[in-house]
Specification:
Order of helices and strands: HEHEHEHEEHEHEHEHEEEHHEHE
Number of domains: 2
Oligomer: single chain
Strand content: 15-25%
Helix content: 40-55%
CATH superfamily of the largest domain: Bordetella uptake gene, domain 1
Distance between the termini: 75 Å
Structural class: alpha/beta
CATH topology of the largest domain: D-Maltodextrin-Binding Protein, domain 2
Number of strands: 13
Strand order of the largest sheet: 2-1-3-11-4-12
Radius of gyration: 22 Å
CATH class of the largest domain: Alpha Beta
Shape: globular
């Protein structure tokens, strides 16, 4: 009896050993979930939904977008890290949640071990904006006012620890301004507060601001990134003002929890590469969202994250405002 049971268990184990790779090879058999760490209406959300739609065509399964905003992206990113590593959950991961914020506060994930990086969409395009009826026509005029009126200006961005907040506070220190930071869950919230007169300045993305600029409600003073925006080519970049010699950079990437099946990792990475290197997608994202697309593979980005995490452990500011 025991011998027969042993043979049965051995046969079952052999069957499972053969069946598991076969089942994995059929991935995906079910819909996928894409977690977005910022609210609906943000640039990240809009671009993620567009990518999800295009990804569906590549993998032959639906991709459901689920928003998990809060704490500068930590809430959504931790949900990705804790998801079952079966290849059916991926999400957007903002650079500071992996490289900067873990050195400022405890986070419920290991930024170097808990993620399978799949692709980088590209750098975010950020800018500094005021209301269209504000008295400041240039960034220098805003700085001059801030220096002459310490404590009177307030600025809004995504939560603490994001590159938006860090670069604005660095500008305040470097340029001799004392301005108050007001955190928001997303760019749309901060832009609404700006238009409503609750704050004076925002550092925000193109998707949240361009429609308001075109509607005559906002004025862009400067691109805080390395170059001018193609949608607003007459507005200078931060370095061009001559006031500072650095620029804000942060990255839009996609990742899954660590340990997903190799077949899922490979198919997702290839599908995302196909989407993000398509010239039509690159042009479309720039026109619709003001989001530059400069694809980078997940393995290369993992090395960037590891390098910059170590730099931030020493308190280096180079990752927020790159020279």
């Amino acid at each position: 009896m025991m011998k027969r049971l042993a043979h049965t268990l051995a046969a079952l184990a052999a069957t499972l050993a053969v069946a598991s790779p076969a089942a994995a090879a059929q991935w995906p058999e079910n819909p996928l979930q894409m977690i977005v760490q910022f609210p609906p209406g943000s640039t990240t959300d809009a671009v993620a939904r567009d990518i999800a739609m295009r990804l569906e065509k590549q993998i032959g399964q639906s991709v459901v977008v689920v928003n998990k905003p809060g704490a500068g992206g930590i809430v959504g990113v931790s949900n990705i890290a804790r998801a079952k590593p079966d290849g059916y959950t991926l999400g957007t991961v903002n650079y500071p949640t992996l490289t900067i914020i873990p050195h400022q506060q405890a986070v419920p994930y290991d930024p170097l071990k808990d993620f399978s990086h799949l692709a980088v969409v590209g750098p975010y395009d950020y800018g500094i904006f005021v209301r269209a009826d504000a008295p400041w026509k240039t960034f220098k005029e805003l700085v001059d006012y801030g220096k002459a009126n310490p404590g009177k200006l307030s600025f809004g961005t995504l939560g603490a620890g994001t590159t938006n907040e860090l670069v604005m506070n660095r500008l305040g220190r470097d340029l001799g301004m004392q301005w108050q930071f007001i955190p928001y869950k997303g760019d749309n919230e901060s832009v609404t507060a700006l238009i409503g007169g609750q704050i004076d300045v925002v550092n925000a993305s193109a998707n949240a601001t361009l429609p308001q600029v075109r509607a005559g409600k906002l004025r862009m003073l400067v691109s805080s990134g390395p170059g001018r925006w193609s949608a607003l080519p007459d507005v200078p970049a931060l370095r061009e003002t001559g006031l500072v010699d650095y620029a804000q950079e942060s990255y839009f990437s996609l990742a899954a929890p660590a340990g997903i099946p190799a077949v899922a990792q490979e198919k997702l990475a290839q599908a995302l590469k196909t989407v993000l290197t398509d010239p039509e997608v690159i042009e479309s994202f720039q026109q619709k969202y003001g989001q530059a697309v400069r694809y980078e593979d997940g393995a290369s980005y993992a090395k960037t994250v590891a390098r910059d995490y170590q730099r931030w452990s020493a308190g280096s500011p180079a990752n927020v405002a790159k020279h």
